[in-house]
Specification:
Bound molecules: uridine-5'-diphosphate
Strand order of the largest sheet: 3-2-1-4-5-6-11
Number of helices: 10
CATH architecture of the largest domain: 3-Layer(aba) Sandwich
Largest sheet: 7 strands, parallel
Order of helices and strands: EHEHEEHHEHEEHEEEHEEHEHH
Subcellular location: Golgi apparatus membrane; Golgi apparatus, Golgi stack membrane
Helix content: 25-40%
CATH topology of the largest domain: Rossmann fold
Number of domains: 2
Radius of gyration: 19 Å
Cofactor: NAD(+)
GO molecular function, one term: NAD+ binding
Pfam families: Epimerase
CATH superfamily of the largest domain: NAD(P)-binding Rossmann-like Domain
Distance between the termini: 37 Å
Membrane topology: Single-pass type II membrane protein
């Protein structure tokens, strides 16, 4: 049995992680300031004897009274509309927040895993993206608040490993979707499903030819646990589904699954929107024996069922 601290534990990925640890009888301290997280995501665990919620902004220092075996650092706005609306908060949580989370791991002698992102590759010139690719990031564009915060958090994590010997892990997360996303999150899968369910127009940014590779949240979380439980993997590991789709292809799948007649409308492409993204998951396959199993149509079906329940509430 392990005692884990999950920053951002009330968010989309964080709340799935809370559940995964509680399901294997670990204890969880969930730390979240609820800026983009949602109390409803952790409500199912509130009465669980192994669960504690600490409402706190990790950009400010904090301590954990109980023993800690692992820290999972998942606190950050992660949807482009969120981090563009919260630019300073995003930079603070990636830098100061990660420092404070690393300090918890260092002082408790705990393992540390931090959530990095495919955004460290920027608008990639190498395709698909292996972990060895250093990226193509605009350091002063609007997305830089997220990209550079995450790049800094990777550098800081490696420095804590090299300087203090903290047992660190870096996971680069590619587009992930599933239940517990907010209906108003702003990311493409939730937008399209909610629009299709409500019979609203599907908003295609640009001409819809840009690509993403979408991983269902259950696969993603299984990858996080495999990385956390592995030994000696301090270099970054891509965890994502390598099946690549254009945004127009995604819209078609969503319309079919939801059986919706929503029309497509075209809106301007956000600044610095990556034109292509697809993980090279050779490292995860070889070192962790991990690969995703839920494919897009099935994942969209499960996610649409979740949003259908949300909207009817
Ligand atoms: N996108 C879109 N319509 C939407 C939301 C997003 O066409 O309603 C596009 C967006 O421009 C990007 C892709 O879908 O090319 C993925 O966007 P998302 O915000 O989900 O994540 P990103 O990969 O950009 O961080």
């Amino acid at each position: 049995m392990a005692r884990v601290v999950i920053t951002g534990g009330a968010g989309f990925l964080g709340s799935h992680l809370c559940k995964a640890f509680l399901d294997r009888d670990d204890t969880v301290v969930c730390v979240d300031n609820l800026v983009t997280g949602d109390r409803a995501n952790i409500a199912p665990f509130a009465a669980h004897p192994g669960f504690r919620f600490l409402e706190h902004d990790i950009s400010e220092p904090f301590s954990i009274a109980e023993p800690v075996d692992a820290v999972l650092n998942f606190a950050s706005p992660a949807s482009p509309p969120d981090y563009l609306a919260l630019p300073i908060e995003t930079l603070r949580v990636g830098s100061l927040g990660t420092t404070h989370a690393l300090e918890i791991a260092r002082t408790h002698g705990a393992r540390f895993l931090t959530a990095s992102t495919s955004e460290v590759y920027g608008d990639p010139l190498v395709h698909p993206q292996p972990e060895s690719y250093w990226g193509h990031v605009n350091p002063v564009g609007p997305r830089s608040v997220y990209d550079e915060a995450k790049r800094f958090s990777e550098a800081l994590t490696m420095a804590y490993h090299r300087t203090y010997g903290v047992d660190t892990r870096l996971v680069r997360i590619f587009n992930t979707y599933g239940p517990q996303m907010r209906a108003g999150d702003g990311r493409v899968v939730s937008n399209f499903i909610v629009q299709a369910l409500q019979g609203q127009p599907i908003t295609i940014y640009g001409d819809g030819s840009q690509t993403r590779s979408f991983c269902y949240v259950e696969d993603e979380v299984r990858g996080f646990l495999a990385l956390l439980d592995s030994d000696g993997i301090h270099d970054p590991v891509n965890i994502g589904n390598p099946n690549e789709f254009t945004i127009l292809e995604l819209a078609k799948v969503v319309l079919e699954v939801v059986n919706s007649a929503s029309e497509l409308v075209y809106e301007p492409l956000p600044e610095d929107d990556p034109t292509q993204r697809k993980p090279d998951i050779t490292r995860a396959r070889e070192l962790l024996g991990w690969e995703p199993v839920v494919q897009l149509r099935e994942g969209v079906e499960r996610t649409a069922a979740f949003f259908a329940r949300q909207i009817n509430l």
